[in-house]
Amino acid sequence: SEAKRLPDSAKWAEAVASEYQSLRDNETFEQVHISAVPPGTKVLPWRLVFAVKEPASVNEELRYKARLVVRGDMQREGQDYGEVYAPVMNISTALVMMAVAAVRGFVLEQLDVSTAFLNAPVDQDNLYMRAPEGFGVPADHVLRLRRSLYGLRQAPRCWSITLTEWLSSYGLQRSAVDPCLFFKPGELWVAFWVDDFLVMATSQQHADRFKQAFGARFKIRDLGQLRKFLGIEVERDGRAGTIRLSPSATLRAWLTSLASLTPRLSTRRCRPRWCWTAMSMALLSAHRCTVSTVPWWVVFSTWRDFCARMLRLR
């Protein structure tokens, strides 16, 4: 209801319609009568999450995203889910790929998968959720999940298994160093962070062949030459064989979010420094001086998120 009152409500409505269409296209769930739900099975509620996505490249505009998520926090271990672990790429892998591509003149491109989790089937058949508004589902019916809808505790693992199975079927080997890096020796290297992908190849032909096959299996956005990855802006000089990484814009956004909790962390008072540790300690000192008016759990979670992001940029 809040989104409907905003000046850009038309864009939010378009985002919701796009999300609903993706759910239908992927056959995410099926309608069942509520009497068909096994006794003792919890019917999970849902919610819509709205976000504005920053452009992945200079040629893109802000993207309005609406995501239907299920309340996975209400799932019960052993009944609604089992194993949930899914690996995440080490940021060092991406940095090494960038360096190698710059020095050796390899092709380095990026892409992402739209509604990635919906490509993976759920690992259990007893997951039910209430019907979202606007789906035309009768009041005495609920939805049985067939795809790993966002919010499910096991959704990242289901997607990871589906993705790695396809990459292996394409003929790529899994790295023993990073489980999110697959490669074909002397030809192609593919690394991923959930639904964001780095593709490095010795020739444009190898990269295009992979993207064509990958796009035939998953709905992707080909973002072309690497410009920004995980908040790091990338500038590459092919002739000089160099690459420049700049996290300044992302850091300022993070500092702004912290400043909303701690007034002393105004971005106007921040200056770039080469020593991440020194900056972290200075921020920590300022943060401790101003936490009295903020609930401790909000401070803890925000600071923990900030430190994790800082470690990605070290």
Estimated structural class: alpha+beta
Binned strand content: 15-25%
Order of helices and strands: HEEEEHEEEHEEEEHEEEEHHH
What is the alpha-carbon Rg in Å?
Answer: 22 Å
The protein's oligomeric status is: single chain
Q: Helical segment tally? A: 7
The proportion of residues forming helix, as a percent range, comes to 25-40%
Please describe the biggest sheet, giving its number of strands, its sense, and whether it closes into a barrel. Answer: 6 strands, antiparallel
How is this structure best described in words?
The chain is 32% helix and 24% strand. α5 runs antiparallel to α7. It starts with 8 loop residues before the first helix and ends with a helix. With 314 residues, the protein is of the alpha+beta class. A 6-stranded antiparallel β-sheet has the order 8-9-10-11-5-12, with helices on both faces. It has 7 helices and 15 strands.
Produce a short descriptive summary.
By secondary structure, this protein is α+β, with helices and mostly antiparallel strands. The protein has seven helices and 15 strands.
List its salient traits.
314 residues, alpha+beta, six-stranded antiparallel β-sheet, four-stranded mixed β-sheet, 15 strands, 32% helix
Q: What's the arrangement of secondary structure elements?
A:
Elements: H1 9-25, E1 29-33, E2 43-44, E3 46-53, E4 63-70, H2 91-104, E5 107-113, E6 128-129, E7 141-145, H3 155-169, E8 173-174, E9 181-184, E10 188-193, E11 196-201, H4 204-217, E12 220-225, E13 228-229, E14 232-237, E15 242-246, H5 248-259, H6 276-288, H7 296-312
Parallel strand pairs: 2-6
Antiparallel strand pairs: 1-7, 3-4, 5-11, 5-12, 6-7, 8-9, 9-10, 10-11, 13-14, 14-15
